[in-house]
Amino acid sequence: MVVGEIAEAVDLLVIGGGSGGYAAALHAARLGRQVTLVERGHLGGTCLNVGCIPSKALIEVADAMATPGRVAPWGVTATATLDMSAVQAYLRDVVDKLTGGLERLLNRAGVVILAGEAHFIKPNRVVVEHGTTVEYLDFRQAIVATGSRPIELADVPIDGTRVLSSADLLSTECLPEELVLIGGGYVGVELGCAFAKLGSRVTIVEAESTILPGFDDRISRTVTRGLRNLGVGICCNSTAIGIEEAGLVVSGPTGTTSLPTDKVAIVVGRRPNSDLVALGDAGATLDEHGLVIVDSGRRATEKVFAIGDLTAGPALAHKATAEAEVAADVACGRANAFDPTCIPLVVFSDPQVVVVGMTKVTAAAVGLAATSSQFPLVASGRARTLGEVDGFVTVVADEDGTVIGVQAVGSHVAELAGEAALAVETATTIEDLAGTIHAHPTLGEAFTEASMALVGRPLHAG
């Protein structure tokens, strides 16, 4: 059915039901707005359906598969076998429970959910297409949260069979014998660790000189060591230039070679979906990368807000969620601005990585005379009890003794991200951190230890 171009008036329109979109809808509904949410796929978006959640669930499965080797030195003999069909059923159950809960939250909030793909045709009008149905909506205000999509490679096109996206790989019911991941950023590293533990022979191809490019060199080196301990091959300064029956053709420092593989996954990054929603037709300004230019209130035009992967900054679900509240507040006439001191970044690799705020190098680049102290996990009682001591926690402070950054790499350090972000966001001093009693034995004690060293009274490290 095609409805004529007679538009229905809506109050607040939210386009995209991912992490940013559903959060914006819930916040605005709580503030009394009549919210209509348009989603072309599944509620929860990339993160919940094919990204953060299923990948982390798979990582837990992979960790369980690696348990026999981990506990053997403790005098425990264990075995593990893998049923990928059962694993996929488990991942789907995790996702279904979360998406079902999300739908109930939106329904209870009174949010009207429309299935379909929306794009702007006027500054205050969208067309929503769903199958043969076309509907027009005139909105009072709109919050756009359409996210991003994987970057594809012209020389190695995704076919969904041999060359996969990360989503394809996460849904596979057949464990690859030989897996090549093109991209050594956090997604490639996480998937590389997981599939190596599951039993695949994994190779990571990265165009830059190290995996996790852009991270602190010490973190990259520690994670590289962890990957190699898992048997993962690493080809840096290398570019995939084609796919043939024998394998993936790679150009690297020693010339051209063919990497044998039955599956290739493209994980080189993502691009914003601003073009798919035609934000330019709403009057929004886009930069050369397709990112939407917004003010601190996330306003792209007088009536349109943009959040999440559509805008500058790390493409992370928790960034989108935080921006959602700002956009909803401003749309509802409440004063708010997105101006975080830090956005925590966690890599669920083996070992895990946490990066919050500045390093000494990035602080120096903006003219700050920073100091830092690194506490090695080899001196941590908790790390010893876990049997995994490779890594460290670094605390960075400015010349006034204010904590401006935390970096950590090691087993289970992802759980330290909240305290690290709180310390930086609230301008905690190193004296405060050093004087805060942390439970023993926990990894959190490493914050105290590093801070104690910074104030001149180290305890367990020289």
Write the SSE topology.
Blueprint (H helix, E strand, L loop, with lengths): L7 E8 L3 H12 L4 E5 L5 H6 L1 H14 L1 H5 L12 H25 L3 E4 L1 E6 L2 E6 L2 E12 L3 E3 L12 E3 H5 L7 E5 L3 H13 L2 E5 L11 H13 L3 E3 L3 E6 L2 E6 L2 E5 L3 E4 L3 E3 L31 E3 L10 H15 L13 E3 L4 E6 L2 H6 L5 E6 L4 H6 L5 E6 L5 E8 L6 H9 L4 H6 L9 H10 L8
Parallel strand pairs: 1-2, 1-6, 2-3, 6-17, 8-15, 9-10, 9-15, 10-11
Antiparallel strand pairs: 4-5, 5-6, 7-16, 12-13, 13-14, 18-19, 19-22, 20-21, 21-22
**Rg computed from alpha carbons, rounded to a whole number of angstroms:** 24 Å
- Residues in β-strands, percent: 25-35%
Shape: globular
Label the CATH architecture of the largest domain: 3-Layer(bba) Sandwich
Number-wise, the strands total: 22
Describe the oligomeric state of these chains in a short phrase: single chain
Q: Number of folding domains? A: 3
**CATH topology call of the largest domain:** FAD/NAD(P)-binding domain
Structure described in brief:
31% of the residues lie in helices and 25% in strands. It has 462 residues and is an alpha/beta fold. It is globular, with a radius of gyration of 24 Å.
